[in-house]
Write the structure tokens for this entry.
Amino acid sequence: MGESNYQVQRNLWDNPWGYIESFFIGLGLITTGFFLEVFVTSSNTFTLSYPYSVVFLAGYVLILFVLFKWFSTTKLIRWLTKVPASISSISLVTMMVMIMGIIPQVTSQNNIINNLGLNHITSNWAFLLILFQFLTCLGLISIKRILQFKWANFGFILNHVGLFLALIAGILGTGDLQRLSINVYENKPSWIATDAQENEIELPFAFYLKDFLIDEYNPKLALVDNKTGSIAHNDGKNLYLIEKGETYFFNNFEVKIDEFLPNAIRFGMRYEVVNEIGSPPAAKITIKNTETDAIQTGWISSGSFRYPYESFKINEDYSVVMTIPEAKKFSSDIDILTKKGERISTILEVNKPFSYKGWEIYQLSYDDKMGKWSNLSVLELVKDPWLPLIYIGIFMMIAGAIYMFWMGNKITKNQP
Amino acid sequence: MTWIDFPLYCAIIVILWIIGLVFLLVSYKKEAVLKVATILFIAGWAVLILFIIKLWIELNRPPMRTLGETRLWYAIFLPLIGFVTFIRWKYKWFLAYSFVMAGMFLAINYMNPETYSKTLMPALQSPWFIPHVLVYLFSYAVLAASSIVAIKGLYDNLKGSFHIETLKLADNLVYIGFAFLTLGLLFGALWAKEAWGHYWTWDPKEVWAFLTWMGYLIYIHYRNFHMNNTKQALTILALAFVVLLVCWFGVNYLPVANTSVHTYTQ
């Protein structure tokens, strides 16, 4: 809002500002943001990093405090601490996020989307400006309720301060967040990680992969259309697991699994169990046509990077195939080697990260093509110094939600 | 396979509930038969619980991965909410609604048979999986209940027979539903940090979950400060539920869907 604008419209903007004024200001911020997107072309996104982010946070909270303490009678601050400003900014933030929920956030063919920056909402000026108003409202009313503390406001403070902390720490934290990935090969030390922009970064410690292990589910059974090559059963969803002795029904075919070998290679007419790298699973099946009672027997195999797959053709239209087994669990048995010569052993697994010197180390992926014979394990390293503040915010909100459940419980028919 | 049994279980449950609904209708005239209706409802519900326990054991994993599985949980929670609300608010129409809705979800599952897969990808194998999904589905069920209250309120408003108690029931449900929605969202964030290295990545499902949360946030703020604008409040509540439905089912059909980590149906 320009000062002159404020002067000219003063008579129209009666005290106190209501919803029309609130939405007017909010949409004004968004329009300004879109103008910035169109006319101020900048290739790199705007982020603050340490120490500026900490300075910004301290300054911002201080300014909010000063504004509330000594300027709460001004029109602007009174408006920001009232409901219309809150509801309008919640609604407009919702609107901007909705754009993100509809338009894919990737490079677009459409010029309007590109110019207005609708494919990078999280760093879009329009979004950042309205979010800034939202945070300012939230910050001011949090300060208001803290200064006028009453036990009846306890839940209110938990919810509002918690959200304020989680949001601001999340936003400022993006500037200090480091996410690296590193390829680790069996029996080799690795210390060169790469970031999202493919820059190589040397770590102060090395990883030594002793063993990479995959535990697999059995492969699944599917009926395939010979002409299209696509799965012709159950819309391709939820196929049957291959287990010895099971019988499954596809249309008018009864398929019985006579034998299942997790690692096998074809020898002449049949598959035999072997203990060899790249030996795929195989199964012997008996197929009975329930209409004609005709019986066929044969072998199927999912194949691997080393051996071809084998399907079983039932008739002109359909074949039975075995899918590539899905991973049940994968883990890396690693040593972390420091420059001082220390050796820290741990096992990384999905959902079980390991903390080391401010880094969280995750099991990310492996060589899919090699499957369970992969000797590559991809690890991810994340450093997020703002995490404690975010957790404080999240746990305040969890406490606030429990309080809210309790309050919601008390609303009854006879309540005034 | 347990799934093959589902039509049988489903038929037993739905028949019990339909007879229960008839008795509930009769109880408007003759209060004494309400007990019969209650027994029939509970019997059907017990059969449903039995089915899900069997399914859980059979699959050897929590049956919470696919849309069809989430519908089963929805069908479990709705009657529970219906009963608790009925005990407190004494609305028979609400009790009836919760069973009709639960029956409808079973019917949808009957018409879209799924052969449950036993596989569960490593990322979902976490102690957060069960609390995250159950808290969310419970919240969805409560909020769906609040939306039906909103629709009844708007209908009453149109006919001029609106009573403020209806909105209080809606508030009661929204507060409880929103508390669980918040918990579900935050549990999701805590889990994501463990599994994917970051608590929030603006995944399409996360975006819509956030929007749902914001929708009910608008309702709560509006209700708190404009006690008397009942019609607007009811409209906000109905719209918030539309966003919730997009989050639950709709995301899969939006252009953003293929970038989501929340599509587990293969």
